């Protein structure tokens, strides 16, 4: 049958212990490891079985032995449950992830809000939120939760410790920021990660789970932001490409540049959303990110595409593929001018965005349509209307989005004095 041992496997002076599950099945030995919450010093671990006349040492010895005994009993109980009900599938069910989940479940606490168990480990809490709030969160928010979870998991591996809800606070914030800087994460990635951890910290407080009292917002200077957009001349070159194997992506790109919507919105456009009133064609939809109900008049360029397609929008394209295809389109269209921007490049087993001078086509992504619309029509369409179309909260946000500084505004004001 199975056994559970505990090991100190870190090179650090203090670390979380490792639970090791060992069992033999059909003549083959299996071993799986998972970190547990209990953290001890290397010095204590070497002396853990010795009889020492010290009250503090003996109290700690009893506390740790009790917890290890409870974890062992919990893991073996779960193992037996699988063994006696699914013996033929034993090795398909029991693996490293199974052990991690079982150890995490030992540390779960009851929620005051429902009967579900609320995990105390931060990476498990991300999964808890995804499950319990899946009907409330937008798809892109769910993707972000996965991204931030992976960052915390990498941080745990780097520091060789488990991050609990009670660890969320200023000390952890500074440690995580230092780690992310070392790993070449952008300032925006660092700030958004801390922001979401503060959201989790707040939710944990509401659930009555022990947390650190101090977790202040992160204040960091922003990375330089490059306002990449397609000019009207660029769009004319793209339109002149004629028929192409990438015609769906090309038409979506043009549509995005003349409607100013995010890909999560324009890629859902359908002919059934179009309404005609007094010979004007409008499209009506709800923005996925903000749930704001929109009614936009269709630009003649969009109507041209619809007329060519017998009133239908192009075929839907997954975002990753769309990003690659519009880069190809812009390269074929000759958008080779070197401009400053940030581009994803390999960093270890992952990727990071590196600042540099690149051909314009390499910096094109699905977001470029919204910024192109806002930039190209600024000064031609009243800003109030542009803000309505793009969905920005304030004029200040909109002007920052298109890169208009106070100096730019002063120059434009001067033109009215002539």
From TrEMBL:
On whether Magnesium is a keyword of this UniProt record, the answer is no
Quote the protein name from its UniProt record. Phage integrase SAM-like domain-containing protein
**Which organism does this record belong to?**
Flavobacterium agricola
InterPro entries registered for this protein in UniProt: DNA_brk_join_enz, Integrase-like_cat_sf, Integrase_recombinase_N, SAM-like_dom
Keywords assigned by UniProt, alphabetized: DNA recombination, DNA-binding
Q: Name one Pfam family in it.
A: Phage_int_SAM_5
**Where do the Phage integrase SAM-like domain residues begin and end?**
122-215
Its domain of life reads Bacteria
